[in-house]
Amino acid sequence: MLNYITWNVSREIFSLGPLVLRWYGLLFASGFAIGYFIMQKIFKQEGIKEEVLDKLTMYMVVSTVLGARLGHCLFYEPDYYLAHPLKILMIWEGGLASHGAAVGILFGLYLFSKNVSKLPYLWILDRIVIVVALGGACIRLGNLFNSEIYGKVTDVAWAFRFVVSDGPNALPRHPTQIYEALFCFALFYFLLKYYYKHVTKMKDGIIFSFFLILLFGFRFFVEFLKAEQVDFEKGMTFNMGQWLSVPFVLIGVLLFIKQSRTTPHNYLIADQQKPAA
After folding, report:
1. Record-annotated residues binding a 1,2-diacyl-sn-glycero-3-phospho-(1'-sn-glycerol) (predicted)?
2. Which of the 8 DSSP states describes residue 144?
3. Is residue 274 situated within a structural domain?
4. Is 140 labelled as part of a ligand binding site?
5. Does 10 fall in a domain?
6. Domain count, the chain
7. Which residue from 73, 83, 112, 172 has the fewest beta carbons nearer than 10 Å?
8. Is the entire prediction scored with pTM above 0.85?
């Protein structure tokens, strides 16, 4: 009995002349679309106008793409991209980093909080990371369809042979994209359930701290199963993804300790505006 799955799925859904629709692009966009729908419900429940969400979505898209692209260029291939700076703009050639996206989102939401919404920064982060977890699952499924960011060679029964990337003699590997996607789906469910259970008595920053600790903690450990993404990682005890995960986990722990001591807030603006009985 074969102890692996042969993965030979095309990266493209269809092409029409120069127009090419890829699975990665579709899943990436789907993460934003579904996230918008969920945030729409959250904003409506809390009495925030929908035009604020539209502006938030714009900030999220721009900061995610710019952060992910710059993160890949500067964290993983700085020598190449600093020597060829125009290549940084060529996103269609591939190369996005989740840690860079995290930094970009944090910066973009800070600007959004300060200049647009006037809502507390941690209030926004607590809610946006719920859909970011879902978006992360969609992106990892996109990586699966791209046959990229996979794991080390293994003999586990669910190993994948990534024929598109490694050719007909591809060795069975850990499908780490699936591991991360499943974890992100579970994280999304946990954060959403926590939000609805505690929304009327929330301590700012707690959901965000959970997100940082759980997501990047998992990322640190799953990296042990991944193949090296770039040559300089060979021989390293901890790869670049692990080193970049550690600060996020530490920030999450410190934030949780600090915010656990604060007073809960009720941000259900819609409820607060109802006339007294």
Report:
1. 140
2. H
3. no
4. yes
5. no
6. 1
7. 83
8. yes
